[in-house]
């Protein structure tokens, strides 16, 4: 149901890097491919210094439907990913938890979503104790659809 192309619309996070660099946010798209029925291959496309990059990740199925595990490199670098709410035809709200830190991301099938969907996102953000002052909105133009072989991070 999550397969296909998504646009990163908004994100709520207490990440200090995000706060310091929020003026540099770039339009971001995500391609989701379902592997062997459960594992998800995620390709994130965004610009860095005006060059399109592809970041590849694998989300492994975790306990229960809509729950995934993103393993990083090194000890303690795993991220729990939970689908908070979704309508696969229009939006998905995902929670990312690493340790005690939680972020909430809103993805849309289009680069802009309805006010109703945005209201749902705000409710999810508030439910984890985050607020408008740590909510960031991504540009709705300047998307990348691909990256050359030298700009792929696995």
TrEMBL record:
Q: Which domain of life is it from?
A: Eukaryota
Q: Where in the cell is it found?
A: Secreted
Q: Which residues form the Lipocalin/cytosolic fatty-acid binding domain?
A: 3-138
Q: Which GO terms describe its molecular function?
A: complement binding
According to its UniProt record, where is this protein mainly located? secreted
Enumerate the UniProt keywords alphabetically: Disulfide bond, Secreted, Signal
**Any single GO CC term annotated in Swiss-Prot or TrEMBL for this entry:** membrane attack complex
Gene3D superfamilies in the record, alphabetically? 2.40.128.20
Q: Give the GO biological process terms.
A: complement activation
Q: What is this protein called?
A: CO8G protein
Source organism of this protein record: Campylorhamphus procurvoides
Whichever gene encodes this chain, its name is: C8g
